[in-house]
Amino acid sequence: MASKKRPETQKSPEVVRLRSRRSRSPRELEPQAKRLRVKGSGSSRRGDSGCLWAGLASLQVPPPCSSIIRDLYRHKLGEAAWPSLQQGLQQSFLHSLASYQIFQKAAPFDRRATSLAWHPTHPSTLAVGSKGGDIMLWNFGIKDKPTFIKGIGAGGSITGLKFNLLNTNQFFASSMEGTTRLQDFKGNTVRVFTSSNTCNVWFCSLDVSAKSRVVVTGDNVGHVILLNTDGKELWNLRMHKKKVTHVALNPCCDWLLATASVDQTVKIWDLRQVRGKASFLFSLPHRHPVNAACFSPDGARLLTTDQKSEIRVYSASQWDCPLGLIPHPHRHFQHLTPIKPGILGTTSLLQAVIQILVSKVVPPMN
Question: Would you say which domain of life the source belongs to (predicted)?
């Protein structure tokens, strides 16, 4: 059988010279190959002396880094088309992600982590809730042992976690234990906002507005409850036919509320005009149960994820129509839960993620 010919590839002068010296063994060439790898692309592939030729063949010169400012300026002058600008934005974002690596790891729970919340004033401090109801306050900037609050175990899953911006030594938590509460990191419960007093009803989502001093929470039978931070219930309405998986207050207009449900809808509400289950501003139908509906930091976008294979991006200018659908297949219960960028990079990173997702499916508006 005739041997397959290797495709022709462009070679640097150094590689050509190395291959022309057939009399030298790969082991003799190893130091020079290492020098080439240092000066070359900076690839993380490490070839041993027996794989010298494969290592040299893998050397590539990286494309020049794109400048977002230059691309935006050229687009403004009409010198760069939208696809070129879109590609430049994506390359810049992906280039920044390439520098991320694991900094620290911890495995304090006997069940999976279900909630995350970054401390609002200490960037290296993170609150983590687990499926067993355990809560950990972890300052990974110091070597002290993390603060740990033991949960009840099975049935105590923490479904929502938010720091109290009026007192950052406290946090709000919703749980499958059947409560939405305010507590501190000494394990003391400061206030119970909602309590189902039954194992058949539990709370699946939570959000808080420090500006308006309100707490909103949703349960597994479709109710959404609005309270003030003093614990007074403002209303309790069945807004969905099934479990409310996520509630989110708009970060810029905190009277705007998004609720997601396994009834395959996301609804947008004006908290100042809620009169009943039919008083929503918009209802966004989905093809599958919805896991989450998250506003972008500027409040102008809404990103939803379902339980099958869709990510949707909506715009404030047309809540009732998605800007685009992004396929993202996964298998049930085989996913990251949850993930949140650090507080120092939250705005820029999330805005970039939203923008990149939008740019994949939406042309610019004239």
Answer: Eukaryota
